[in-house]
Amino acid sequence: MGLTLINPALYQRAEKLAQEQSTAITDILNVALRQYFWELDRRKIAEESACYRQQHSQLCDQYLGYYIAMHNGEVVDHDKDFKQLHARVQQHWPDTAVMITLVTKQAMPTLERRGFRME
Fold first, then answer.
1. Does some domain include residue 108?
2. From 113's CA, which of 29, 37, 83, 93 has a CA 20 to 30 Å away?
3. pLDDT value, residue 112
4. Is 111 part of any domain?
5. What's the CA gap between 86 and 114, in Å, rounded?
6. Is residue 112 part of a domain?
7. How many helices (H) and strands (E) does the chain have?
């Protein structure tokens, strides 16, 4: 059903690659989709990071020393405990890139990307 929606030229190219690599076409398509979604997530986190930098002084006033979860440019949750915040974010937004960072006096956070691994 879903494969009939793929552009025929792209599907033929994927079939050829699958044959060359002696693998199933579904493996090729799954890897391609995983990489596509990873890139979308990477871009979203970069956008959230820009929002963080723009709002840094206000965020410091309210959340200094807390981990915040940022989604669509807004703080959607915060906590002193990273693991608890991360668990809530995973529960509420399981398939969405949400930036989690510690609010520090420095505007440029060190980003740690967790949960977006290529397999």
1. no
2. 29
3. 57
4. no
5. 9
6. no
7. 4, 3
Q: What tens digit of pLDDT does each residue of 14-28 get?
A: 999 999 999 999 999
CA distance 38 to 97: 9
> Whose structure tokens read 């915060």?
78
| Calpha distance 31→26 (Å, rounded) | 8
Q: In this model, does residue 1 exceed pLDDT 50?
A: no
Domain of residue 94, residue span: 6-102
- The contacts of residue 116 (CB under 8 Å, 6+ apart) are 38, 41, 42, 97
Compute the C-alpha angle 75/60/89, nearest 5°.
25
How far lies 3's CA from each of 13, 18, 28, 32, 80, in Å? 13, 15, 13, 14, 45
Instruction: Say if CB 81 and CB 67 are below 8 A apart.
Output: yes
Query: In the chain, how many domains are there?
Result: 1
Mean pLDDT, residues 96-119 taken together: 74
Q: What are the pLDDT digits (tens) for 49-85?
A: 999 999 999 999 999 999 999 999 999 999 999 999 9
